[in-house]
Amino acid sequence: MEGRRGTNLPRVADYNQAVILDAIRHAPEGLSRVELAELTGLSAQSVSNITRRLLDRELITEAGTILPVGRGKPRTLLRLRPTGRFAIGVHIDPTVTTVALLDLVGDVVESVRTLPASATTPDRLVTAITESASGLVASTGVDPGRVLGMGIAAPGPFDPGAGVVLDPPLLPEWSRVGLRELLHEATGYPVVLHKDAASAALAELWRGSAASLADFVFLYLGTGLGAGLVLGGELIGGSTDNAGEIGHLMVDADGPRCRCGQRGCVGPACMPRTLVAEAAAAGLLPRPSSDAGDREIDELFTAMCRLPAARPILERSATRLARGAATIANLLDVRAVVFGGPIWDRISDVFLPILNNTLLTTTEARKVHPVTALGSSLGPDVGAIGAGCLVLEHSFSTRPSTLLLGPRDDQVAAAP
Ligand SMILES: [Zn+2]
């Protein structure tokens, strides 16, 4: 197990405790012990024992009472205790690295930005992330012993078994970076690694616009485009957690040439670099230098989004993205496609009506249920929030794959 020690996230609870915690986390307004027994099928005595242990360990808290229908004693409501545990989420994007401290319910306590991955080496980035994380824990006064671990959202593809980022196309200097082990050694935290788009989907599932949906796709718009898939309330990773690489879905036979050799791939059709080049070719922007970095492109893209004359370029991009989104929605029969990521706030006014119209009027399942386009409510930090949610998900989950992650090092009472 030597090579996997970085993945050994502490489980916060044994199986029955995890079942109770999971029920409580899905009911932010709180649940009584009677309701917990009904929901989980555990006996009233077991629920009473387990909730007492969870209260002792400060994972849950008593929050008010409700009167049952008819006669009976008032019932105490139980909720997660936000300050009971914390998670660190790190989002590595070519243009910015964000480090966020999340509480136990997934709210951001504080976040900071540090070196963008495209402007530094992996070693220097690991140092910057380590300093940012310890700075956040110190400045917020959080007890370091309550930090469950660190989640990393990064561009794929990955070798998930080894915790290695292979050779992300948008980070040409990166090749087989053992990010999980490097960060585990530098910080001492258990570290879990996932793709940016998958992490963003998990953030939506925990905290965002899609929290009430069991089936949706998150389309992550950043320096590149990726999809995070949630079906049946679970993040779908595929055989190696590399699912969701949709960038080369062809959406326009007359679209721009892609590095894969095809024309009209959906990824480049909504990448800032392509759109800035189109605006420059139309004389709306200064032409970026041939070796323009991601940050220069990002600044030009911000200027472009403010230009009324550039609107038709954005509309054409939205139409292409909408075709891709409809195909994915048809493939998976989801009820919503959620859009977000670092560039979303700049383009949502133009994109959202076009995306919504296409999904509502062209998807095959529309006569059975509407398929809607939603904008992420979590803002540009959605990747970092999702990275922190990876830690919470691993720590809370009742799924066998997560329970097998490794020995827990949190003091937990034995199962009842
Ligand atoms: Zn392509």
Report on the structure:
The protein has 416 residues and is of the alpha/beta class. It folds into three domains: 2-82, Winged helix-like DNA-binding domain superfamily/Winged helix DNA-binding domain (Arc Repressor Mutant, subunit A, Orthogonal Bundle), CATH 1.10.10; 84-202 and 381-403, Nucleotidyltransferase, domain 5 (2-Layer Sandwich), CATH 3.30.420.40; 209-377, Nucleotidyltransferase, domain 5. Helices cover 38% and strands 19% of the residues. The chain is built from 13 helices and 15 strands. Strands 6-5-4-7-10 form a five-stranded mixed beta sheet. Strands 13-12-11-14-15 form a five-stranded mixed beta sheet, sandwiched between helices. Strands 1-3-2 form a three-stranded antiparallel beta sheet. Strand 11 and strand 12 (225-231) form a beta hairpin. Zinc ion (ZN) is lined by residues 248, 258, 260, 262, 265.
In sequence order, what are the helices and strands, one letter per element? HEHHEEEEEHEEEHEHEEEHHHHEHEHH
Helix content: 25-40%
What is the CATH domain class of the largest domain?
Answer: Alpha Beta
The N- to C-terminal Cα distance equals 29 Å
Quick gist of this model?
This protein is α/β, with parallel strands linked by helices and 416 residues long. It has 13 helices and 15 strands.
Summarize the helices and strands and which ones pair or pack.
Layout: H1 15-25, E1 31-32, H2 33-40, H3 44-56, E2 60-66, E3 75-80, E4 86-92, E5 97-103, E6 108-114, H4 122-140, E7 147-154, E8 158-159, E9 164-165, H5 179-187, E10 191-195, H6 196-207, E11 216-221, E12 225-231, E13 234-236, H7 266-269, H8 272-281, H9 294-305, H10 311-332, E14 336-340, H11 344-362, E15 372-375, H12 382-396, H13 400-403
Parallel strand pairs: 4-7, 7-10, 11-14, 14-15
Antiparallel strand pairs: 1-3, 2-3, 4-5, 5-6, 8-9, 11-12, 12-13
Helix pairs in contact: 1-3, 2-3, 4-5, 6-12, 8-9, 10-11
Bound molecules: zinc ion (ZN).
Zinc ion (ZN) is lined by residues 248, 258, 260, 262, 265.
